[in-house]
Amino acid sequence: MLRQRTIFFTAIVAVVFSVVLAQDRAIAFPWSIDMYRGEAVQPLSVAPRVMPKGTVSTEGAEPPMSRIASMRLRNPLPSTPGNIDMGHKLYDMTCAPCHGATGKGNGPVRHVLEIPPANLTGDAVTGMSDGYIYGTIRDGSIVMPGYGDALSPTERWEIVLFVRSLQQSQNATAAK
Ligand code: HEC
After folding, report:
1. What angle do CA 125, 137, 73 make, to 5 degrees?
2. Would the CB of 118 count as within 6 Å of ligand 1?
3. Nearest residue (CA) to ligand 1, atom 25
């Protein structure tokens, strides 16, 4: 008698469970996949929205490009006192700690660096193209970290203008 009852109840429970599980609507059971069965759009089930024509990024993002490929980029900014001044401010904040206020590679954190920061007014960097310096600011160098996430393309070009003005003023002084 007890065995028959157990079989009977087990069968009822099994029937109830299979009816509940057969539902494809969200009915809060089984709880583990309840959210999955909801009305939400599944990842990648809809193609990503295409950007409307003429959309301009608010972050000034640019297509991915290596430092070497950046060598050929031209500085779109004119070398005006205003742009150089802006570059000077950004340089003091971002580059001067390592490269020093005058670009000689002797900034205040120089003593903790294993590898010395480059002299930005030396022949090597003076001979580099604007695009290469721009790409170095964005991606970093061998041990120098990149500042692509901290400086917009315009800000990087402004720094390039300031580095050029440092080189010019120091080379002019050296020639005297
Ligand atoms: C944390 C320290 C540090 C900061 C900050 C830093 N640099 Fe450097 N930079 C270095 C070191 C070290 C090197 C030399 C080793 C190397 O090439 O990685 C270097 C090398 C360079 C070079 C030469 C690259 C080459 O290919 O030889 C340039 C140009 C340069 N830095 C520009 C900048 C500019 C511009 C900034 C500011 C946006 C800046 N750096 C910020 C540490 C730094």
Report:
1. 75
2. yes
3. 141
